[in-house]
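The authors assume throughout that readers already know how a fold can be written as discrete tokens. The format is easy to grasp once an entry is in front of the reader. For illustration, here is how one protein appears when written out as sequence plus structure tokens:
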Amino acid sequence: MNVRIFNTLANRKEPIKPITPGKLGMYVCGVTVYDMCHVGHARAYVTADVIYRYLTHIGLDVTYVRNFTDVDDKIIARSNELGVDPRELTDRYIKEFYVDMDALGIKRPEIEPRVTDHIQDIIKMVQTIIDKGHAYEVDGDVYFDVPSFKMYGRLSGANMRELLSGARVDVDDRKRSPADFALWKSAKPNEPSWDSPWGKGRPGWHIECSTMGTKYLGDTFDLHGGGKDLVFPHHENEIAQSEAATGKTFVNAFFHNGFVNIDKEKMSKSLGNFFTIREMTEKVSPEALRYFLLGTHYRSPLNFEVEFTCPACGAELKRKDVEDRKCPACMETMDESSAAAAVKFPALEEALRRLEYLYQTRQRLDEHLSVGITGGGEILKAEEVTELDSRFSQAMDDDFNTAAALGVLADAMRISNEVLDNKDGHPAAMVTSTVQRLRDSVSIMSKVLGILEQDPAEALSLLRSKALDSKGVSSEHIDKLVAARDAARQAKDWAEADRLRDELHDMGVELMDSPQGTTWKMKS
């Protein structure tokens, strides 16, 4: 096994060496279920999904745990705002989470624990930390004693002063140190609470992952992941409280995905600059969003391009203009349809076009193999074809470099089209042998990356529909224009045929005339 991962704890790439040969434990911090997930969440869980898929592909028995935080200050505030029970709220958003994750092709982990189902486990761990001298109780609250844990700060690589200056800490004169954090919070009016040795209360945020991680994966496990924003304080605190409780190394390697940025700012709900996964998957195909996320190495920041343009006059808009449904330049009022058309995502639209090409090529491969031509003999472009699998493995072994892996997949599709075109007139048996080999390689890459797994005809229909939606047109409207152009050509009204062709061209439609009629596709 040659897989290397950038271990945040060591600040370098290191080989993954499973604690138990052939098995691997991986924990990824889940969502706090009080609202819809945004594209930043999508990146975190697509990253973890590809790591999970690849480690499983190379033969490891992976136990993947991803939790749900279903009791938290934000959940309590939202449930009070809506006047619903917290459990009702969290159940609703867990269902919505699955809708989004399933749409993105994200496999469900083997274990998905909820905090509220593990209260007794959490209480037990908190008591152990107290008994070992690393926590203390004050008026029903329990705090972790940060100065008592000498290795605190080693994940984020900062000393105590730097950590405190860069973090929000709860101001509480009862704490021994400003850095101390809550393991257990005493009950407040109108909040869910549970009985504990320190009175009624509920868990702090950080303790939940320590408890559930060690419960399902052991005191020490192999991989722990999440977004870069979790390095401090969440993962730093997880290490401290876990190792204080067990006296053992908590995790061998941490991995963290980079931020999704809009205009050089992190996408987040607190900044109000986020787009939900649902918004994106309604505007472009979910698979296009996944492809886009895979196109940049998971540790690098990812710029999420958004353009706001008036559909009426073409003027550049601000997001608030679209929300207000009015263009300051031409003063046109936008209805729901034109407001949707005013928002463009250039990189996602490019991802959609690339996916269309990949599916078209996969369809060609499938169709060639479906006609029953028998392969035999040597394969064409032997060196390029036989290197595809090893090149893909090398990309994934090097810290799960999906951007490079997509490049290998693109090469496989280019070679596939060249072989299928067969401009040099090679024997059919050789072409088929090569196509079989290419199709096998493409299948492996697709399975690991989580793309190109749909029926090509259905996928292409969806991609075309989404491409049209992004331009504010429908396939029915284009079909009518194409039929009108065909009628004009038959009537030898060349001026009208040319006008309709130009209109379609301006809409981004490419026409393909043949003796059998005219077909069309969206231009790449």
Notes: The mean pLDDT is 92.
